[in-house]
Amino acid sequence: MRPEVLKLAAELSGAGRPYVLATVVWRRAPSSGKEGATALITPDGTVRGWIGGACAEPTVVREALRAIDEGTPRLLFLGSPEELDEHRRYGVVSVPIACQSEGALEVYVEPVLPTPQLVAIGRSPAALALTRLAGALGWRSIAIDGGGQAAGHDADTVVTSLDLGDVDDRSYVVVATQGHYDEDALERALATPAAYVGLVASAKRAEAVLGYLRDRGVADDRLARVHAPAGIDLGHIASDEIALAILAEIVRLRAAGELDAPPVAAEVTPRHEEIDPVCGMTVDVADARFRTTYEGRTVYFCSAQCLGSFERDPSRFVEVGS
Questions:
Q1: Of 30, 90, 150, 291, whose CA is between 20 and 30 Å from 192?
Q2: The listed CATH number (3.40.50.720, 3.40.50.300, 3.90.550.10, 3.90.1170.50) that belongs to domain 117-255
């Protein structure tokens, strides 16, 4: 994999952005894609790296966006329409390409979706334990200390002000200031679209905090989002165990589908596609370089050769393309 692709993948993963890695795992010459060639594809269809020529790349991009939508990888076979049947096997998506080259490719398409993001507010022992345990799970973590101190935090990012600007609908926010500024932190957390908002406090303390926010005008439907006391009830336990109980509650809710965020596919740029009437390939209209007008409508083609074939005898392809 090229260094610039690796660097971009690391940057996108660190920022919690989805992308796809497409890797050529087999080729038949004279395909321009080589074994091991890798490209990174973002939800807007941008390609960084190289996987193949003008026929292969649009097909891989289209399947990459479907992989993000479905959250599942797939192996693609790209070859001539005549050889698709002999390459059909379980788990392989066979896609016809009709370039004049006799090459063929197999490309592994792997979506890389954002890992969960835990936001721990406070510098209490429970907050410190939360960031440590989140790291052990492979989650991204942000430690927010509205008191202006960062000592002891083991998080990917440490913020020394009560700034929740990076919180989105895939974030899990836990307020664990132990009474220092619970009310302010919780009010700000409820102003975000976080999938989970928890408060580390006793039942009595939690009731007082929620009552204070209600008196300040925070709506009941917002207050109903708060998990308080946060975590599965394990009785009187130590700070590290409180953090574990909170993560267990989040995992349980995720498994039940109660913390589902909108699908990543919502971020994918919509694409208008048409069928090349000559070869049957799918053509992305926005990027189509070859087109003509026939009987008042625009017809799109994957290559100059297909366009030429159509223009020489449109009647051969009208029924296929209509």
A1: 150
A2: 3.40.50.720
